[in-house]
């Protein structure tokens, strides 16, 4: 019965492109911690899948849910009350009720539904919400369907609880949250509220004029919420429903952090353009779904890959006077991060996010220049415009690496020209200020902050190596031969040092840190005590072994230390590790010492927490060395957490806690598949493309269509199809625009005997490191066939 209402005459259509994307679950009895997001670039709504709006959150204590219009919050929530005018009194009030706990929750790419079966009222109700693009408000629709078989007259009342308040870290700008005050505009049928100390406003109304309204600070619906908000109710009497029919009411919730006039303008826009706004967002999401369409044998991975494309859009955060870019995680981290985006943006590139990648890097760089000015890249930027953390060491190097990869995909030389001076400053900061002993290993906290060990860490060192290579390529692009040579020479020295000094041969692993024994001595008892408190026996054993190694060491002596954090995978992730060392390390990292049932442990000592980013880095590391079966295993582990918490999503912490959707999850889902398995490696700035496809065993028919390459005059689109068989391997590819050169690097058959044809004509292939390569100077649509001769 609940399934039928979504196909009612008033339900908006998704269209054939988006119809397959619908995930749901029964919601009655769910914990309030099972949350959802209705996403938009200006507003978004966070609530519980069961239809409620609980107080929760630690950044803004108890206030991270509700309706947000960054840099302010608008509402704690809203609730609908329904009463049957004819039967209510006779039934002792049982036919008057709040919509509290839904029976099912349904998630779609850009909107959600809560479905209710109200037996006492003989009604089905659907609550549907969506946040239009570029609008400072949202639209909430209630569909009510009669199940009694008689004409009905209902009284409806919507209660909304405001909480006009600032985002996290706003106190750094001297912003104070005042109590809210409100009023009812009877003529317009609106509830209006404002913050007493600030020009923050919210306006709520429907597609019809209310019968009456009320405003009180101590008026609540089904449950109380914290904060300095005020409640407003709007009542709609004698709402008629025909026997077996459906009645729909639309509510429009608009806000502004500048004036009531702007909030009213947005309200009118939402009310007068509801259908057009829906169609605009639907059309844009169709475009998202239609970019980078993959067809692979693993249909579950394919399904999750497609949903990740939508997730990317859920994170776009646009705040006037601050900027626009990819946020990190909902519900607690909707703002911008340096570290997170150096992973996220790589995952964004192969699925059409070229413009957003550049916008995000530009925002992070602008904030970093304003906050630091010395090349250091920030860690965290609140939507208030305040930098919460000036940046850990690895973030500067990671940012530089990311800049080069983004440039390779976009080919936007104007973007690189703007960023390049900061790249040089960042490398100077890493190798001068952050390397006081001159050993090329920068000091300072990295991704994993080992408390009290602000020392030389593996991820900072590895990403600095990668940043030096990126800087050298940028210098070559700008014709700075001396700078190029210096960066290349430093990269060689640093790479040798990492592969020598930070490699622990007896373990077959890279170390977490290079540090004086005295620093470890000063903290080791604290680490052991904490491991004991956690009951982490493996960690206690490993830490006590480290303590035994410290016995008799000169406190000033520096050596590598193994704490078994997941970042020891970074030498393999970046390709720095020689193959022999890489394979040894990866094989141990893939054992149950480092890999749990849902992915790679954050710590091989503690073995209790897994995360999509640690698992994603492992997937990339495996793919980097053509270990595609192993890479697929880790991609599948990420995908196995799909729907564990939020239908249509994967949680930050595997399998089902932390942020219920996290931006950098896309790194493990899209980057190894597109960059290494399909092997798409553009150099858009020179209109060149390398295709190096390598697939897991048993994958014989694959395709990737409408892959975006380049921006502006370098824009192009790639289609790639692969068919592998015992007789021949066939690679079909097409570029939409002419003028690009394409080099295809293919695995040579095991016995080396093959015939290569291009568009049906024999061609001589170049031998390259166990591969064969064919270059087409000006590529269009082609078929490359490698036929076995034995």
From TrEMBL:
Biological processes annotated in GO: carbohydrate metabolic process
Limits of the Alpha-L-rhamnosidase six-hairpin glycosidase domain: 396-513
The organism of origin for this protein: Paenibacillus lycopersici
Protein name: Glycogen debranching protein
């Amino acid at each position: 019965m609940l399934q039928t209402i979504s196909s009612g005459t008033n339900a908006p259509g998704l269209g054939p492109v988006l119809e397959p994307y619908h995930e749901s679950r029964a919601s009655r009895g769910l914990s309030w911690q099972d949350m959802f997001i209705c996403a938009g670039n200006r507003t978004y709504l966070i609530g519980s899948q069961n239809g409620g709006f609980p107080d929760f959150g630690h950044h803004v204590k108890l206030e991270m849910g509700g309706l947000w219009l960054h840099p302010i919050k608008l509402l704690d929530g809203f609730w609908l009350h329904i009463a049957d005018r004819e039967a209510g009194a006779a039934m002792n009030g049982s036919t008057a009720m709040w919509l509290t706990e839904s029976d099912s929750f349904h998630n779609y790419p850009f909107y959600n539904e809560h479905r209710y079966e109200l037996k006492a009222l003989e009604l089905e109700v659907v609550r549907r919400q969506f946040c239009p693009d570029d609008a400072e408000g949202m639209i909430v629709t209630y569909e009510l369907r009669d199940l009694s078989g008689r004409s009905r007259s209902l009284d409806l009342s919507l209660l909304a609880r405001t909480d006009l308040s600032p985002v996290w870290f706003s106190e750094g700008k001297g912003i104070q949250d005042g109590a809210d005050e409100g009023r009812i505009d009877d003529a317009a049928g609106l509830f209006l509220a404002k913050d007493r100390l600030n020009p923050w406003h919210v306006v709520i109304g429907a597609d019809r004029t209310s019968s009456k309204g009320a405003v009180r600070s101590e008026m609540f619906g089904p449950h109380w919420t914290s904060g300095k908000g005020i409640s407003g109710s709007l009542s709609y009497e004698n709402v008629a429903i025909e026997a077996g029919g459906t009645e729909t009411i639309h509510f429009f919730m608009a806000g502004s952090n500048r004036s009531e006039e702007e909030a009213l303008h947005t309200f009118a826009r939402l009310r007068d353009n509801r259908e057009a706004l829906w169609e605009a967002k639907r059309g844009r999401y169709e475009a998202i779904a239609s970019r980078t369409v993959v067809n692979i044998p693993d249909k579950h991975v394919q399904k999750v890959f497609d949903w990740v494309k939508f997730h990317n859009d859920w994170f776009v955060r646009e705040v006037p006077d601050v900027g626009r870019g990819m946020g990190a995680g909902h519900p607690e981290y909707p703002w911008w991060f340096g570290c997170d985006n150096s992973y996220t943006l790589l995952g964004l590139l192969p699925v059409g996010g070229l413009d957003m990648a550049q916008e995000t890097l530009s925002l992070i760089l602008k904030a970093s220049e304003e906050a630091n000015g010395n090349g250091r890249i920030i860690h965290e930027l609140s939507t208030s415009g305040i930098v919460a953390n000036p940046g850990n060491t690895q973030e500067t190097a990671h940012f530089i690496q990311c800049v080069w990869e983004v440039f390779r995909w976009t080919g936007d030389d104007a973007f690189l020209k703007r960023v390049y001076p900061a790249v040089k400053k960042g490398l100077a900061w890493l190798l001068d200020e952050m390397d006081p002993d001159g050993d090329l290993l920068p000091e300072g906290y990295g991704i994993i902050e080992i408390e009290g060990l602000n020392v030389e860490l593996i991820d900072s060192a590895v990403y600095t190596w990668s940043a030096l290579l990126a800087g050298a390529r940028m210098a070559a692009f700008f014709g700075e031969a001396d700078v190029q040579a210096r960066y290349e020479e430093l990269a060689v020295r640093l790479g040798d040092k990492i592969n020598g000094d930070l490699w622990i041969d007896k373990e077959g692993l890279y170390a977490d840190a290079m540090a004086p024994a005295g620093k470890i001595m000063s903290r080791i008892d604290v680490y052991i005590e904490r491991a004991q408190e956690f009951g982490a026996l493996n960690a206690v054993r490993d830490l006590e072994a480290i303590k035994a190694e410290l016995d008799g060491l000169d406190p000033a002596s520096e050596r590598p230390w193994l704490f078994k954090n997941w970042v020891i995978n970074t030498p393999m992730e970046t390709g720095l590790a020689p193959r022999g060392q890489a394979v040894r390390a990866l094989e141990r990292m893939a054992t149950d010492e480092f890999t749990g049932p849902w992915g790679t442990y954050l710590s091989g000592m503690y073995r209790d927490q897994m995360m999509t980013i640690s698992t994603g880095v492992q997937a990339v590391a495996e793919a980097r060395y053509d270990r595609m079966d192993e890479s697929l295993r880790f991609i599948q582990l990420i995908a196995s957490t799909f729907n564990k918490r939020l239908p249509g999503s994967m949680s930050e912490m595997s399998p089902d806690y932390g942020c219920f959707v996290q931006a950098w999850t896309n790194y493990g889902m899209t980057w190894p598949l597109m960059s290494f398995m399909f092997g798409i490696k553009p150099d858009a700035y020179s209109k060149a493309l390398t295709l190096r496809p390598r697939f897991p065993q048993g994958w014989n028919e694959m395709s990737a269509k409408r892959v975006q390459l380049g921006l502006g005059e370098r824009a192009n689109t790639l289609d790639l199809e692969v068919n592998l068989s015992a007789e021949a391997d066939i690679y079909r590819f097409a570029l939409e625009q002419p003028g690009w050169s394409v080099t295809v690097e293919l695995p040579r058959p095991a016995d080396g005997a093959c015939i290569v044809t291009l568009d049906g004509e024999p061609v001589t292939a170049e031998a390259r490191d166990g591969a064969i390569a064919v270059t087409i100077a000006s590529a269009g649509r082609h078929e490359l066939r490698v036929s076995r001769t034995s």
